[in-house]
Write a structure and sequence with these properties.
- Strands 2-3-4-5-1-10-9-8-6-7 form a 10-stranded antiparallel β-sheet.
- The protein is 35% helix and 25% strand.
- The two termini are 30 Å apart.
- The longest helix has 20 residues.
- β8 and β9 form a beta hairpin.
- The protein is an alpha+beta fold.
Length: 370
């Protein structure tokens, strides 16, 4: 049976938060040089399993988490005669929890393709219904000039995937592009054995409301990126000018105090909208102002929903994404995690480096596992 030590690679160590690397460096009296040199020296040391065990408490909560995007795919086996792990084992020719991929025992980057390959994995529970898999693939190719020659360099990347057969989901740690690549790989690998993969909509369980997602996490809404509701299909040039005149007139009123001029501009603007259609007169002016915008971003240092301007605009906006922050008690202290919610990609990005516990907390809320 493979252990977590068997599936950790240099990029995993290099991706740890700087303060974790520094704690490990202090433990082993390693010079705190730049992060990459530090990661290389730590990686060489932890190849020794005894050394790894000494500092595993620093590494394990972050090693496959950190600053990452997360997405989920529901899994439904068509025929329950076998487990998903058994199907995977049959298709790839080895049990990834018992041994590493024979083709990847020594990683030859020349043989790594853009299609992911399973390297190995570990059990996450006693009965083996939940497990973590590591995949490897060629993520990009770069060219660089070396003297008189141009050389090509392949970049190899690792992907972390969690499969929970009991709760029926596949979790991908990676951005939208990586998630699609994993979806295609497992869709092809398990074709005919499971229902087609479709990414979990992260906002539907909360009534399509990013505010409700923030509430479910016990957090606050920091920022939103929105498009405007199509209350008014299209403004004429005259109407757009009229809106601008109203805003300028309001500014002028606060400077000059000339109420008569403001009233004149408002009356003229009312006639402009009245001539087009009487329905416009029943539309709130806030919605008319927003109708001239294709996208609107709003942010706050605290709870955005407490801001009066957000309260005024919110009924006329369709959120496309946003930032949330929530507290989580870990090891007796309260940590705060900031998330970027991608409503068009259905991904959750941890701006604050995530721990396994923080990802688990968000997962349970979105997949309704509480």
């Amino acid at each position: 049976m493979l252990s977590i030590h068997d599936i950790i690679y240099l990029p995993d160590i290099a991706g740890l938060p700087r303060y974790i690397l520094e704690d490990i460096a202090t433990t082993f009296n390693i010079s705190k040089d730049n992060s990459l040199d530090l990661a290389i020296e730590i990686y060489e040391k932890i190849n020794n399993i005894n050394v790894f065990n000494e500092i595993s408490n620093f590494i394990v909560p972050y090693i496959f988490a950190g600053r990452t995007s997360v997405s989920w795919y529901p899994i439904k086996i068509i025929n329950n005669e076998k487990t998903l792990l058994q199907f995977i084992t049959e298709r790839i020719g080895f049990n990834p929890l018992l041994q590493k991929n024979p083709e990847c025992m020594t990683i030859d980057e020349e043989k790594i393709s853009v299609e992911p390959k399973i390297i190995g994995g570990i059990k996450l529970n006693e009965n083996g219904t939940s497990y973590l898999l590591r995949l490897i693939y060629k993520s990009e190719s770069r060219r660089k000039i070396s003297g008189l020659h141009v050389t090509s360099e392949s970049i190899t990347s690792f992907i972390t995937v969690i499969i929970d057969e009991e709760n029926g989901f596949l979790e991908v740690r990676g951005n939208d592009r990586v998630s699609r690549k994993v979806q295609q790989y497992f869709g092809k690998l398990l074709e005919g054995k499971i229902e087609p993969f479709e990414r979990k909509n992260v906002i539907v369980p909360f009534g399509n409301s990013i505010e409700s997602l923030a509430d479910s996490l016990g957090g606050k809404l920091l920022e939103t990126i929105s498009i405007t509701e199509t209350i008014i299909s299209e403004l004429t040039e005259e109407q757009a000018i009229s809106i601008g005149n109203i805003l300028i007139a309001i500014d002028d009123y606060f400077l000059s105090g000339d109420l008569n001029k403001l009233e004149e501009i408002l009356a003229n603007s009312r006639q402009c909208f009245d001539r087009e259609t009487e329905d416009y007169l029943s539309v709130p002016f806030t919605a008319i102002v927003l109708a001239g915008m294709s996208k609107l971003g709003m942010a706050s240092n605290g709870e955005l929903r407490d801001q009066p301007l957000y309260k005024a605009f919110q009924p006329y906006l369709q959120h496309q994404g946003g930032f949330l922050q929530f507290p989580l008690i870990e090891d007796g202290i309260i940590n705060h995690y900031t998330l970027k919610v991608g409503l068009t990609t259905n991904t959750i990005y941890f701006v604050t480096p995530a721990t396994e516990k923080s990802i688990e907390y968000v997962r349970k809320k979105i997949l309704l596992l509480d």
